[in-house]
Design a protein that fits this description.
The chain has about 425 residues and is mainly alpha-helical. The chain has a domain of about 160 residues. The chain is about 80% helix and about 0% strand. The longest helix is centred in the last third of the chain and has 43 residues. The two termini are about 40 Å apart. The mean pLDDT is about 90.
Length: about 425
């Protein structure tokens, strides 16, 4: 798998970096919103505060990191060079950040104009990104599971954004739709067809590379993205024709696929060559366990739909899957990708004459561990707040904001050290 990597094709460092540094800010905003809204946010998954906080995380945090990662990895893994990557990154970053803020404000204050504006801006931004990536991928054969997974994840992104635009316009009064069922499908495409497929495609490279595990089995790597999109397609068609049984079977199938991927990753981690666990490994372990628990809940709902109406069930599921699963995966990857890219660009800049500092000199392990413990405390408080919202909603939100602010601080510290080493290398090259 690592033989596919062509780091000489990497875009300028600032292209993906702007996304990585912005994402924690949206995590801080989400935490502050939880603290400000308090118990009202935990009243229902449909409360204005819950919708706003959810989209600050899914669009402001997760989508930022995923699009930034794609800008970095497309030329390196697939040889798909974006035309003018810095311009693409600037335009997508501005559109995505502004759209996420408009969307959150629209949900929180129930402002149809903001929802409509956010839908339009995010739709244009994502379509622009998809057009840029499609042009880069044109003619690139699917020679690895990662390349095919990326292509299929982009299909999932198109579907989730289309569904999101339709729902936002419905909320803005443009037309009438059955929102609860469509919202579940929107979440399915977003977390399954887009986030999970892309995460798996990237995991095929970054887990063996950074966690020193054996490679993923070829057969399952090739077919996991296809099977996931197939389940979501069945779910979509079943919803269109109002067939509840096929829809539930498709949900169950998607849940089983996610559990299988998580279990497979844990088995590979058990065979890793590095004895001492680092923060990235622990983040991934935690994320895998939380994801399996959430997907078991989804499996139960597929066979017993009434379970989804139990008090707190939907909120627990969402917190476990998003805050307990996807965010730890992405934070763990950031803690490897940012120092690795810093090291790589410094190594290239030194022209093989001046070695770059080790990755642990760019982003030290103790800071990552402390931030991780703060995040785990925040997650525990969020889960407990589902049952005791009056007492725990505010502290849960504040600790979540602190943990994400700490993440941003750690990443900024890495960039500060990168710039310091860059200046040192510049001086040494000038005087050598």
């Amino acid at each position: 798998m690592q033989a596919l990597l062509a780091f000489e094709n990497a875009p300028p460092f600032t292209a993906p970096l702007r996304f990585f540094l912005t994402a924690p800010l949206f995590g801080v905003l989400a935490g502050l919103l939880v603290a400000f809204e308090g118990a009202d946010l935990f009243a229902s998954r449909w409360s204005p505060g819950a919708l706003a906080a959810t989209h600050l995380i899914t669009v402001g945090f997760m989508l930022q990191i995923m699009l930034g990662a794609l800008i970095q990895i497309l030329p390196v893994v697939a040889g798909a060079n974006l035309k003018r990557p810095l311009l693409v990154a600037r335009l997508v970053h501005v559109g995505l950040s502004t759209g996420a803020l408009l969307l959150a404000v629209g949900f929180l204050f129930e402002l149809p104009a903001f929802l409509g504006g956010a839908a339009a801006l995010l739709g244009v931004t994502v379509l622009f990104f998809l057009a840029a990536t499609a042009a880069a991928l044109a003619g690139v054969p699917s020679t690895s599971p990662t390349i095919r997974g990326i292509k299929l994840a982009l299909v999932g992104l198109f579907c989730v954004v289309g569904l999101g635009i339709a729902m936002a316009l419905a909320l803005a009064g443009a037309w009438s739709l059955s929102l609860p069922e469509l919202a579940d499908l929107h979440a399915g495409w977003g977390l399954g067809g887009w986030a999970a497929v892309l995460l798996a495609a990237l995991a095929y490279v970054v887990v063996p590379m950074f966690q020193l595990t054996p490679a993923y089995p070829a057969r399952s790597s090739w077919w996991f993205p296809v099977a996931m999109l197939l389940m979501l397609a069945v779910w979509s068609v079943a919803l269109l024709f109002e067939q509840s049984v096929p829809a539930r079977l498709a949900q169950f199938g998607a849940a089983l696929l996610g559990i299988a991927f998580a279990m497979q990753t844990m088995r590979l981690q058990a065979k890793r060559r590095r004895a001492r666990p680092d923060a990235t490994y622990r983040y991934w372990q935690f994320g895998l366990i939380a994801s399996v628990l959430a997907l078991v809940m989804l499996s139960v709902v597929a066979w017993w739909p009434e379970a989804g109406e139990l008090p707190g069930w939907s909120l627990l599921f969402g917190i476990l899957l998003v805050a307990g699963g996807f965010l730890p995966f992405m934070t763990g990857m950031l803690y490897k990708i940012v120092p690795f890219l810093s090291w790589m660009h410094l190594q290239n800049y030194g022209q093989a004459r001046i070695p770059a500092p080790a990755m642990n000199k760019i982003l030290a392990e103790p800071g990552m561990w402390r931030q991780m413990l703060a995040y785990f405390l925040a997650l525990a408080l969020l889960l407990a707040a589902v049952f005791f919202p009056a007492r725990l909603a505010c502290p849960a939100g504040l600790v979540f904001a602190v943990a994400n602010g700490w993440l941003g601080w750690n990443l900024l510290g890495a960039i500060k050290r990168y710039r310091s080493h860059f200046a040192d290398i510049t001086l040494k090259l000038a005087t050598s």
